[in-house]
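Design review, sub-item: ligand-bound model
Attendees: FS, YL, KQ
YL presented the inputs for the zinc ion complex:
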Amino acid sequence: MKPKKRHTKSRKRVRRGAIKFKSATLTVCPKCKRPIKPHTACSFCGTYKGKKVLDIKLKKKEKKELKKKQKAEAKDKKDKEEKNKKIKK
Ligand SMILES: [Zn+2]
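KQ shared the predicted structure:
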């Protein structure tokens, strides 16, 4: 079908003025509490509905931070064990 009449510049512009970006609706990941798209697996921790469904590769910075955390935790454990030993003695 062909257009019956030509639309004016104004009409075209009015029509296109109604086309705009919508802000994406976001929900919060139940595991890591970061904003994510609804009905999709979390791209930060790889979980969907509480189950792990994706293997997420860590960036170099995040890897370093993880190692630091693990080291700190290991130290804390050692310190606690030593304290417990002292208390037992
Ligand atoms: Zn997450």
